[in-house]
Amino acid sequence: MTAYDNSYSRFVAWAKILLPLFALAVLSTLFLFSHRIDPTQSIPYSRVEVDKLARQERIGSPRYSGVAGDGTSLTISAGMVRPDKALPGRVLGEDLRAEIETPEGLRLDVTARSGEIDERARTARLAGDVKIRASNGYEMVTDDFSAGLETGEAHSEGPVLGKGPLGRLEAGRMEIAPAANGTAGHVLVFKDGVKLIYEPQK
């Protein structure tokens, strides 16, 4: 047997002893440090968030839809709603979107940062950076917009700014109203100080 063979045999013999001891030391170290981990600190906000959700009774991604007496359909969705503790029957929402469509096909897509649905009054109100896009080409912005859940009526609570097929438009109020002169259907009406800046189509 050569010197190389003797060295290799001694290496194998020592490895059989040292490697298990090294593995045992590593496991002991992991076990020791594992007892120093505080499980209450691993997710510091979990308990707070759960308690907050329980108190607020929030509902995520709700959706409301219905058809008014005049045939106008209304669908409202939100990122989140919660009950209004000060007024039973009313819910407060965030990231609201309303889709309103008349029987004749006039459609409004309305988005807002917040709003409310009052089941007793049968109304919905959207507020905060309200954007309105109508199927007839008008795009408007306003601060508040309300709709009747049973009547199908919808209107802005204040001035509107925007643009349409004829150009830029300002008005003190905008609403969906029945067509005049006994004509069937609904129309988009601007009133109270209407200003139109005509911009010819190129």
Give a structural overview:
By secondary structure, the chain is α+β, with helices and mostly antiparallel strands. The protein has 2 domains: 3-37; 59-198, Lipopolysaccharide (LPS) transport protein A like domain (lipopolysaccharide transport protein A fold). It contains 3 helices and 13 strands. It has helices at residues 3-34, 39-42, 46-56, and strands spanning 59-60, 63-67, 73-83, 90-101, 107-118, 123-134, 139-148, 154-156, 160-164, 167-171, 173-178, 186-191, 195-198. Strands 1, 2, 3, 4, 5, 6, 7, 8, 9, 10, 11, 12 and 13 form a 13-stranded antiparallel β-sheet that branches. The radius of gyration is 33 Å and the shape is elongated. It starts with a helix and ends with a strand.
Rg on CA atoms, Å: 33 Å
Which CATH C-level class of the largest domain is it? Answer: Mainly Beta
β-strand amount: over 45%
Average the pLDDT over all residues and give the rounded result. 78
Low-confidence stretches: 33-54
Briefly note the structural class of the backbone: alpha+beta
CATH superfamily of the largest domain: Lipopolysaccharide (LPS) transport protein A like domain
Work out the oligomeric state of the chains in this entry: single chain
Strand tally: 13
| Main sheet record | 13 strands, antiparallel
Overall, the morphology is elongated
Which percent bin holds the helix content? Answer: 10-25%
| Span between termini | 99 Å
Count of individual domains = 2
CATH architecture descriptor text of the largest domain: Sandwich
Q: What name does the CATH topology of the largest domain carry?
A: lipopolysaccharide transport protein A fold
**What's the tally of helices?**
3
Spell the H/E element sequence: HHHEEEEEEEEEEEEE
